[in-house]
Amino acid sequence: MRIRHVVFCLLALVYGAETSDDDLDERTNIFIRDKLIPALKLAEVTKVNFTRLHLCHCSREVGCNARTTGWVPGIEFLNETDRSFYENTCYTDGSCYQSARPSPEISHFGCMDEKSVTDETEFHDTAAKVCTNNTKDPHATVWICCDKGNFCANETIIHLAPGPQQSSTWLILTILALLTFIVLLGIAIFLTRKSWEAKFDWYIRFKPKPGDPLRETENNVPMVTMGDGAGSSVPEVAPIEQQGSTMSTSAGNSFPPGIMPNNMKDMLDVLEETSGSGMGPTTLHKLTIGGQIRLTGRVGSGRFGNVSRGDYRGEAVAVKVFNALDEPAFHKETEIFETRMLRHPNVLRYIGSDRVDTGFVTELWLVTEYHPSGSLHDFLLENTVNIETYYNLMRSTASGLAFLHNQIGGSKESNKPAMAHRDIKSKNIMVKNDLTCAIGDLGLSLSKPEDAASDIIANENYKCGTRYLAPEILNSTMQFTVFESYQCADVYSFSLVMWETLCRCEDGDVLPREAATVIPYIEWTDRDPQDAQMFDVVCTRRLRPTENPLWKDHPEMKHIMEIIKTCWNGNPSARFTSYICRKRMDERQQLLLDKKAKAVAQTAGVTVQDRKILGPQKPKDESPANGAPRIVQKEIDREDEQENWRETAKTPNGHISSNDDSSRPLLG
Questions:
Q1: Predicted pLDDT of residue 180
Q2: Are 350 and 333 within 8 A, CB to CB?
């Protein structure tokens, strides 16, 4: 029973499909008779044979569009329903066609009139000629043309031969083989490049030129042709007194005088006038400086890498080695050092930079001059200074800072913009052999834009050297768009450096402070303070580094403290500029030198004869009548007061504190 039902359903489907095709063909014929032909007559179409008219399926934008003569939707006298139903349909009194093209496979459908009268598209012209066997298709396209009924070209499916696909496969394999050969050839050339580069270079330099005499290879002397016509030649031997000048230790002396080839002369002339590359006058190329430096040991470490001592052409240099990850910092500091006219005795001298491949990693080298005394911080740890040395150190530092801050005008090629260092501290100041200083580490430096309307490109949240940060940076009140604000912050940091150096100054009754305690704000902060801790000490409590009580009685130190107090003022606009700091110390240093010169002159004016006339001088009795040694007791009190300032007690966590904090004078 079930088998009968299945057979019945299959027969019904087949019959229904045939009936559907018949209904579509009948509907199409009715449409042609009742609607299409009257519409064409109304449109005054006369080039079509209405008795043979039938419909074909057409492909959009190829053989079926508004430009096609037989496009059904293009007839204006049809209603919208018929136009929508026959959207991809064309009418013709000739043939329906189907074309298929391989790689990639594309099939097209369309109409071809009986007289091959088509629109202006080149595709229809080609189809008309192919269907009438007037030409052969050069693209191996397969065509089907029929006129037996409506949509007859759709009844056949074109199957293309696999030949073109196989040919494309062979083409891909050929391309891959060619690429493999090119890669292997490149690898072989790379592995053998040194040998053939040397041979090619030798050939270019030493190939004989027309007019050069022939030479005997072993003795390197010219050959002289004999006059017997046999073409034989023997070496021409120079006199004994001239043979001693023939040397083989250099290319310039490997030929006897007077017979050097022309190409050798040209090469030696080029080498004498250039650095060896032949591209111009002798210059120091940054890409080759790394190969001429021999590192002899590490001397310190910084924010972005290590600092090593090196030897470059007999001169000791400092090599700052950056990690590959810190390349932006390397380029930034190199750019600052290469600023035009950045040459000053109190700014660290820049020599060059290079990228060095060590075999494992790529290092970035920044080469500067080397100072054996190290930084000012290291120098003060091991040495104390007198007042003359103090002026030399601080006056030179102020001079270098003023040079950075000031703008040097000139032409576009010869000027220096105003700059701010932004990281002034004793570890970034080098001590030279003449006990003057040079400012280094310009990695955070900032140049003032040439255009006043340009924005200042800087990191507003930089916190390098937290202990030396100005109050306006700690409390975020600094005007970051005003360039002079950065210079005021430099002056504040410089005042702390002046205080550090003054703590290690020894002159007369003033004794130096212990080196381990000469750190700004160490009494109230940790060794490595956080921003919040420095904000509390500097901004909230308004504390400043402690002052030795004996400084206010010293004839020079009291004036130095006046400069320091002005420079670490909480108001940036109330601070001295770096130029005024240098000028004030210049004046005090000159007065000190004049005073000493006058004292020496007065001492030299007292002759031995004058001393005989004056006779022996009795010491004055400074004690009062009652015998109380007031002056001696005053000196003892001063020494005790200074000892209390110097001898501070260390707590286990690294803090420095005294027995009585209320008795310590606080500034600010």
A1: 93
A2: no
Task: Assess contact for 526 and 654: CB atoms under 8 A.
Answer: yes
Name the least confident of 129-143, 273-287, 326-340.
Answer: 273-287
Q: Note whether 439 and 421 are within 8 A (CB).
A: yes
Q: Looking at the predicted structure, is the pLDDT value of residue 36 above 90?
A: no
pLDDT at 259: 52
Give, for 616, the enclosing helix (H) or strand (E).
Answer: none
| Tokens, residue 455 | 């924005």
Q: What is the pLDDT of residues 585-632, one digit of tens each?
A: 999 999 999 998 998 888 876 544 455 444 555 444 444 444 444 444
The dihedrals phi and psi of 385, each to the nearest 5 degrees, come to -130, 155
Q: Say yes or no to pLDDT of 231 above 50.
A: no
Predicted local distance difference test score (pLDDT) of residue 202: 65
Instruction: In whole angstroms, give the CA distance from residue 81 to residue 626.
Output: 139
488-534 per-position pLDDT tens digit: 999 999 999 999 999 999 988 899 999 989 999 999 999 889 999 99
Cβ atoms of 256 and 245 closer than 8 Å = yes
Going edge to edge, which strands form the sheet with 215-216?
A: 215-216, 221-225, 233-235
Three-class DSSP category at 494? helix
- Please give the helix or strand (H or E) that residue 605 lies within, else none: helix 578-605
On whether the CB atoms of residues 290 and 358 are closer than 8 A, the answer is no
In the chain, the amino acid numbered 431 is V
Q: Please report the domains of the chain, with CATH numbers, ordered by start residue.
A: 31-155 (2.10.60.10), 202-210+261-282 (no CATH), 284-370 (3.30.200.20), 375-603+630-647+654-668 (1.10.510.10)
Q: How far apart are CA 36 and CA 288, in angstroms?
A: 87
Mean pLDDT score of the chain, rounded to an integer?
Answer: 75
Helix (H, G, I), strand (E, B) or coil at 656: strand
Number of H helices, E strands in the chain: 19, 19
Assign 647 a pLDDT band (cuts: 50, 70, 90). low
Average pLDDT for 292-309: 85
Reduced to 3 states (helix: H, G, I; strand: E, B; else coil), residue 352 is strand
Q: What Å distances lie between residue 371 and 39, 314, 379, 433, CA to CA?
A: 104, 15, 11, 7
Residue pair 97/153 in contact by the 8 Å Cβ criterion: yes
Residue 170 pLDDT level (bands cut at 50, 70, 90): confident
Alpha-carbon separation of residue 210 from 38, 202, 204, 207, 263 (angstroms): 96, 18, 14, 10, 10
Burial of 308 from C-beta contacts in 10 A (0-12 / 13-18 / 19+): buried
Collapsing DSSP to helix, strand or coil, 602 comes out as: helix
Which are the catalytic amino acids?
423
Q: Tokens in use for 327?
A: 């390349």
Angle at 501 between CA 498 and CA 505, to 5 degrees: 130
